[in-house]
Design goal:
The protein is of the alpha+beta class and 403 residues long. It has helices at residues 22-27, 34-38, 71-133, 165-170, 197-215, 218-221, 227-230, 238-246, 330-335; strands at residues 42-44, 58-60, 148-155, 178-179, 268-287, 290-305, 316-329, 339-348, 390-393. It has a seven-stranded mixed β-sheet with strand order 4-5-6-7-8-3-9. A two-stranded antiparallel ribbon has the order 1-2.
Length: 403
């Protein structure tokens, strides 16, 4: 073969030099001289160049003559084509393997992500299921105590004085009282051991709002809605409040007068909407988490008989002293509400025989009590002592002086 050079160590199969051997015959169809290779139109890429996924295994040889077919060029093309075919089934297979390897890694990552998502979803579903079947029940807080009520009817010793509201106020101890909400003055708020001055002021504001809504609001006084009062109470006391308003009873728990002031609209009307008020507040700590506020206020109402027949001189004064004790924990301060613990009410002029469980029944101008003697009390009776009707004589100094 022209241009061939024997290996320096001799032929690989041990055949003498210059003689055709078995190895030479085996590789003779595929071994060409250097000039034939240089004349090839296609050139095989190196291993590094074939590492790209989209690069063909062979390329056009630079500088090769592509013009004009000929016998030698056809032979070269056939060799190159045969060479290209052999690499065609080798190289793409390696590229396919690399593509499959990358695709496998991508598919594995996707499968792993999907498994992780399903695992998280399963854990969340299990937690939700267990939470719904075995919900955490926080320890219940202390429930509000039932309100304890004491009502005392103040009975006059003679007929009730009458006149115009302004004149009556001027001749009574209520002459110096301020009208309406202005008479419910709040003291300076001072911090306590466990509550700030702001929290103390919030507690005082809640109790003042309760006094205004339960003692001064015209709708409440004349038998109208009581929702505004109810909203200021601890929810644990709503049931007791509702029963006291709808079905009052003289049992020391369910008297309407323990919660609010109400007159029978069929018998009594307001002669002057400017109710005179005077009183005090006292703040203490019941515990590290509870404030206790005691209010002591006297409300003086100018009343007249209901109906158009009453004249301007038919008014009379009716005094109600309310001593209320409130408790407010930190939730109550945040929700602007209070727990009413005790309510002590003294009201007159009234008859000792009057029913104190529901709306108050004042004695109006010119009327006198049917009995001035308090009713007898039986210490052996099964009725609670708080349910016993209480009565006391109305001091003459509390009545308007004669003109």
């Amino acid at each position: 073969m022209a241009g061939s050079v024997d290996p320096p160590d001799g032929t690989p199969d041990g055949t003498p030099e210059g003689l055709p051997g078995r190895g030479e015959d085996e590789y003779r169809p595929v071994v060409f001289d250097e000039s034939f290779i240089r004349a090839a139109r296609l050139q095989e890429l190196s291993a590094r160049e074939r590492m790209g996924n989209d690069i063909p295994a062979v390329r056009d040889r630079p500088g090769a003559d592509h013009d004009g077919p000929g016998p030698d060029r056809d032979a070269e093309y056939e060799y190159a084509y045969d060479l290209d075919r052999r690499h065609h089934w080798r190289t793409p297979r390696r590229r396919t393997r690399r593509r499959r390897s990358g695709h496998g890694r991508t598919t594995g990552a996707r499968v792993g992500s999907l498994i992780l998502v399903l695992l998280v979803a399963a854990v969340f579903a299990a937690a939700t299921h267990l939470g719904s079947r075995y919900p955490y029940q926080p320890p219940p807080g202390p429930r509000a105590e039932p309100l304890r009520v004491t009502l005392v009817a103040l009975t006059p010793t003679g007929p009730v004085p009458g006149g115009r509201p302004g004149d009556l106020y001027a001749r009574s101890p209520a002459a110096q009282y301020r009208p309406g909400a202005a008479g419910i003055a709040l003291p300076p708020a001072r911090r306590t051991t466990h509550f700030s001055a702001g929290q103390v002021m919030t507690a005082l504001t809640v109790t003042k709002d309760f006094l205004i809504r339960s003692s001064l609001a015209p709708d409440v006084l004349t038998g109208g809605t009581t929702r505004s009062v109810r909203l200021l109470l601890d929810p644990d006391q709503h049931a007791q409040f509702d029963r006291s308003v709808d079905s009052p009873a003289a049992d020391g728990r369910h008297a309407t007068g323990g919660w609010l002031i109400r007159f029978d609209p069929a018998r009594v009307a307001l002669a002057d909407p400017g109710v005179r008020v005077h009183g005090t507040f006292h703040v203490t700590e019941a515990s590290a988490d509870v404030l206790e506020i005691t209010s002591d206020h006297t409300f003086t109402y100018a009343l007249r008989p209901a109906g158009p027949a009453a004249g301007p001189d038919d008014a009379s004064l009716f005094a109600v002293r309310r001593e209320l004790r409130f408790r407010l924990d930190r939730d109550d301060l945040r929700m602007h509400r209070a727990e009413l613990v005790t309510s002590h009410l003294q009201a007159g002029p009234m008859d000792c025989s009057a029913d104190l469980s529901g709306a108050l029944r004042p004695l109006l101008a010119g009327h006198r009590p049917t009995t001035a003697t308090p009713p007898a009390a039986d210490p052996y009776a099964s009725v609670p002592a708080a349910a016993t009707r209480l009565c006391a004589a109305l001091s003459p100094d509390s009545r308007p002086s004669p003109p």
